[in-house]
Amino acid sequence: MVVDMDRRILEWAKVLESIYRRAPISKTLNSDIWFDDEARAHFVLRFNPGVCHAMGDVHGGIIAAMVDNAIWFTAAAQYPWIWVTTTEFHTYIIKTPNRQDIYSEGWIVHKGKRLAVAKAEVKTADGSLVAYGTGTFAVLSHVRFDLNQMEARLKEIGWPPQGS
């Protein structure tokens, strides 16, 4: 039974990767996602001037988004086809990434029937800690993840743009 659940979670993680790659934010941030064999979400954000503040380094809100992505996708992977929603998250920024690519990774702290807790770290390629954070998620067992609804909502906002 545990093996079947692990397989289901890893299959769902592949669907979540596809969902993120279709989202406008992945293009805006020039970021990508992958899951490891423990269903932990990993993200990379390639440095680009479009995510910088006036002093020329990655904006703190973008760093917080890297924490948010890693914790939400790590938590969501634990509940195949069930919607989880963020109830709160915290980001603690340690230092700037000095115009480098940054990477985030999430871990499950608690997996319950109604609540999940995850944590994440954001680092540079050389392993320097840029930020860390935690998040709590409500597990909405009564709300099934619907790919058709997702596609319809993206279409409503004109995504993807014509000709892309």
Key phrases:
164 residues; alpha+beta; Thiol Ester Dehydrase, Chain A; 6-stranded antiparallel β-sheet; 6 strands; 34% helix; globular
Short synopsis of the structure:
By secondary structure, the protein is α+β, with helices and mostly antiparallel strands. It has helices at residues 2-22, 24-29, 60-77, 147-156; strands at residues 31-35, 41-45, 82-93, 102-111, 115-124, 129-144.
Structure overview:
The protein has a single domain (2-152), classed as Hotdog Thioesterase (Thiol Ester Dehydrase, Chain A), CATH 3.10.129.10. A hairpin with a 5-residue loop joins strand 1 and strand 2. It is globular, with a radius of gyration of 16 Å. The chain has a six-stranded antiparallel β-sheet with strand order 1-2-4-5-6-3. Helix content is 34%, strand content 35%. The protein is of the alpha+beta class. The longest helix has 21 residues, at 2-22. It has helices spanning 2-22, 24-29, 60-77, 147-156; strands spanning 31-35, 41-45, 82-93, 102-111, 115-124, 129-144. It is built from four helices and six strands; from the N terminus they run H-H-E-E-H-E-E-E-E-H.
CATH class: Alpha Beta
How widely separated are the two ends? 43 Å
The name of the CATH architecture is Roll
Low-confidence blocks of residues: none
Percent of residues in β-strands: 35-45%
Shape: globular
* Number of spatially distinct domains: 1
Record field, number of beta strands: 6
Overall pLDDT level: 93
CATH superfamily: Hotdog Thioesterase
Structural class estimated from helices and strands: alpha+beta
CATH fold title: Thiol Ester Dehydrase, Chain A
- Rg value: 16 Å
From N to C, what is the helix and strand string? HHEEHEEEEH
